[in-house]
Amino acid sequence: RQAAFRTDLSVLLDQVGGGKESLSFMKRRIRRLAQQWATAANRLGAKLGQRWRDQKKVLIHVGFLTEESGDVFSPKVLKGGPLGEMVQWADILTALHVLGHNLKISMSVKELQGFLGVPPGRGSCPLTGPLPFDLIYTDYHGLQQMKQHMGLSLKKHKCHIRVIDTFGTEPAYNHEEYATLHGYRTNWGYWNLNARQYMTMFPHTPDNSFMGFVSEELNETEKRSIQQNKVNSMAVVYGKEASMWKVQGKDGFLEILHKYMEVHGTVYYETQRPPEVPAFVKNHGLLPQHELQQLLRKAKLFIGFGFPYEGPAPLEAIANGCIFLQPKFQPPHSSLNHEFFRGKPTSREVFSQHPYAEEYIGRPYVMTVDYNNSLEFDAAVKEIMRTKVEPYLPYEYTCEGMLERVHAYIQNQDFCLPEPPFIPANFSRLGSASGSRVIRPLFVPLPNSTSLGWASNVTAPAAWPPLSSLRLLVSQEGQSCVEACQSAGFICEPAHFRFVNNKEALRGLEVQCEVVDSEINHILPAFSVMRRECSLQREPLLFSCAGHSPKYRRLCPCRDFLRGQVALCRDCL
Ligand code: U2F
Q1: Is the CB of residue 82 below 6 angstroms from any atom belonging to ligand 1?
Q2: In the chain, what is the straight-line distance between the N-terminal and C-terminal CA atoms, in Å?
Q3: Kind of pairing between the strands at 323-333 and 350-352
């Protein structure tokens, strides 16, 4: 069946159910953004024209909100606990509904069993018939529950699963045997999925798919009224729980801030001001989302203290015309050195509180400074007060941007197809074009990485992203493909590894190989210049943009991307 856009959200609101604070929060959000979603649906509908969109049968099982997983989130919704995950799930539900798919929503193991048609009760009772869904969106808790209650049949159906995974899972952690042998085993990883089945909150490693969430977009009238009502000397602190205010050196930099600005907070409290919050801070208590937006519309500065990491609030602040000031982390925080990231299935290094804000948005909307350097901090505050900015929201975080991306994933990502062969394409020397096979000769001059890029004729079955987007680069020693592609203005595309994991690619790059072997290692394909050793990848699950090794230069499949929509290439839609 063809999917039709929906602009009425009442059926969805009924499906979400109620009772818990978390669900009420999500429903309030869905209602508040209903108009924005409707406008976005109309716009995307016009953009896609008459294009056929399959209607999918989708199961959404929100594992972390089930009683069976302990649901630690719901009781804290009104007490300053994490809301980012609920923001994201509310938006995923809405996007799938608006795109016109056929949804079943489960928030308990019982509902899960009912929808899957497995007999209720404990123990792993396998699903015997065919899976009644095309797609299942869940999280790590939900995955565990499905394993418990579907038993072996989970393995058979796992290509249909998408895991909403805030901080992401790198391929080395996802491959069970490899993770166990090489020290990448964590509480979460090792499900042997295709790494693109993990969907993140921000575009972290491109090994995963970027799902995201939305923030409110302002119309021209609202933007104008914001400009008129901005208070240049008003700051709001990012931190709704008192513990987020326990920061080393806070007194020093807050003192500087307070010298120039009136400082506001939205910290949850029961009866009295929490001791961590200085007396000069005007604390509003935890606000409902729409009231926080109003406060941000007046404020000029939104200031982070280092935690929470990578949440939605800075995007909301910037969308409401604030400048976001945040601390630089030197050395960077990661699962190796910080409690919060410990045990998360990623080695990603986080160089500031909100790397997306720093790298994808940047100045003048985002200032990342060393909070221990009082001169630098002082200068930043003064600069912010005199800098004029317009409300800004990257397209990928608008309702239309999210709908476009989720639409593209649903219609094009298929992890159930048999693994295609590694060498479907013919590579030939740049310049000596072998007739019509070379469709995209390209030379990208790069200061730091040798680069040659070309892709040959599309002989692979319906590659997505299409092969026309491929640019092959070679990383520096010690550099990951995430960095190599980024430094050339591209993005690493894991789906393209299979086209460059071959001798032809090495030959085309004029790499001197004494031997070309094939191994199981997440940095491959790669070569050692010193030893003239070249290695190809033997395990497709270990193709990884994130990996790096000091002795190896990696073959990196990069691709172009749309401005403001990094998940999609030019020919992806
Ligand atoms: C992140 O979770 P948080 O919930 O701590 O993220 P925030 O950026 O604080 O924002 C979540 C929402 O809370 C709302 C605000 C945001 O959409 O509008 N809010 C509010 O309604 N009232 C207020 O007074 C203040 C904020 C991240 F998303 C998670 O993935 C991480 O687990 C967590 C820890 O790093 O940080």
Answers
A1: yes
A2: 20
A3: antiparallel
* Separation between Cα atoms, residue 202 and residue 312, nearest integer Å: 9
In sequence order, which ranges of 390-535 are alpha helices (DSSP H)? 399-412, 481-487, 497-500, 503-508
State ipTM. 0.95
Cite the DSSP H helix spans in 361-454: 374-386, 399-412
Which atom of ligand 1 has the smallest separation from the CA of 289?
A: 21
- 3-state helix, strand, coil split of the chain in percent (to 5) is 35, 15, 45
Q: Which of 414, 450, 457 is nearest to 435 (CA)?
A: 457
**pLDDT confidence of residue 277:** 97
Q: Does residue 341 have its Cβ closer than 6 Å to ligand 1?
A: no
Which sign does the torsion angle of CA 511, 206, 356, 71 carry?
A: negative
Q: Which residue has 């395990």 as its token pair?
A: 539
Q: What is the pLDDT of residues 192-232, one digit of tens each?
A: 999 999 999 999 999 999 999 999 999 999 999 999 999 99
Mark residue 442 as left, alpha or beta (left: phi above 0; alpha: psi -120 to 50; beta: remaining): beta
pLDDT at position 123 is 60
What is the CA 376 to chain-centroid distance, rounded? 31
Ligand 1 centroid distance, CA of 312 (Å): 6
Quick one: CA dihedral 276, 281, 287, 289, positive or negative?
A: negative
Would the CB of 84 count as within 6 Å of ligand 1? yes
Distances (CA, A) of 148 to 144, 145, 233, 540: 6, 5, 55, 27
pLDDT digits (tens, 9 = 90+) for 325-352: 999 999 999 999 999 999 999 999 999 9
Pair 490, 473: CB distance under 8 Å: yes
SS3 assignment, position 472:
strand
Does the structure show a pLDDT above 50 at 459? no
**Cβ 315 under 6 angstroms from ligand 1:** no
Ligand 1 atom closest to the CA of 238, numbered from 1: 9
Ligand 1 pocket: which of 27, 72, 240 to mutate (most atoms within 8 A of CB)? 240
